[in-house]
Amino acid sequence: MIVAPDNRVSFARLEVEIKGGINGSEEWPNNWYAWDVNRNFPDPQAIVIFTPSFGQVMREPAATTVAVRRGRVVSIQPGPVPVPQDGYVIGFGPGAGQIAERFRVGDTVQVRFIFRDRGENTLIPSRGVRHILQAGPLLVRNGANVAHLSRDAWRDPKFFLKSSRSFCGADRNGRLVLGTACGVTMDGLAEVLVKLGLSDAFALDGGASAGLYCQGRYLVRPGRKLSNCLALIVHPEPRVPIRLRGEDLQVPGFLKPPGVTMVPLRGIFECLGAEVGWNQASQEIVIALGERSIVLRCGSRSAFAAGKKVELPLPPEIRGGKTFVPLRFVVESLGLKVVWDEAAQRVDLY
Prior knowledge:
The protein has 350 residues and is mainly beta. The protein folds into 3 domains: 2-113, Jelly Rolls; 138-220, no CATH class; 239-349, Copper Amine Oxidase, Chain A, domain 1 (2-Layer Sandwich). The protein has helices spanning 97-100, 186-195, 265-271, 327-334, and strands spanning 2-3, 9-10, 14-22, 31-34, 36-37, 47-50, 64-69, 72-77, 87-92, 109-117, 122-124, 131-132, 138-141, 144-145, 163-171, 176-184, 198-206, 212-214, 217-220, 239-240, 242-244, 247-248, 253-256, 260-264, 275-279, 284-289, 292-296, 302-305, 308-311, 317-319, 322-326, 338-341, 346-349. The protein has a 5-stranded mixed β-sheet.
């Protein structure tokens, strides 16, 4: 399932190819590739990218690990390393040493993801992808039952028995539909979803793992304690993805009335090489970027940039331990260029 920047969903038998380059080139010997993202892989040939979203210590592949910060290699060493908040780690299995040897400390590194619909044999533009959820088997495609377990290599006998099953799908308007059905086979679930008017759908989990929780209570209670879930959270304001000089920020901005885009202060300034500090005595945020200094205070619309007082359209605010400031302030204090990418529904800063 693909979630687009406008939050509409689409479905595909998805293939993802990860390609990379070194120092601006993808030609040999500067080309590299990866098998997957944020997945511990024991295969000796594996090459995996670990990002801050992994949320835990990487284990393998780790015969060689290349740490990248702000698009540049900062370390190459054997064994697991912490994933930097402003970058990622490329882990290489012992059989992938010939690829790891292409990297040097100080090299710039590029990575891109190629999305392909295997069923339609078509490319999916990356700018039309915000999130991807992979699961299966595929049950409904274009309003028809396409459940074919043997063809899709789902051969475990439990998939052919009646059980509780959860699913994810979309109606013909591209709206997301989540649900759980009790006492059905995969084919039976597909037939139910077709009758419900879903355009596309696939199975998530089943048996004791199938549960549905909404508005503070279980609609379907799982048969055991669960370690994970697929959660939909309604944000109070529209989220705004941000890309700074070609790199996506981990924390998106948000749109706040009367139409002010608020962006993560630390994420932007640290990616530019600035030092961000906190003055406990004065309760002020102090930013040093080369010869420029910026001082601001949460809750106050007054800030100082290069010694000059600046009035903000809205005061900085803290959410989830992160400080957000108006986009206009970032642009004016750093001289950045702003471009609104309509197709990706994203703010690009250069």
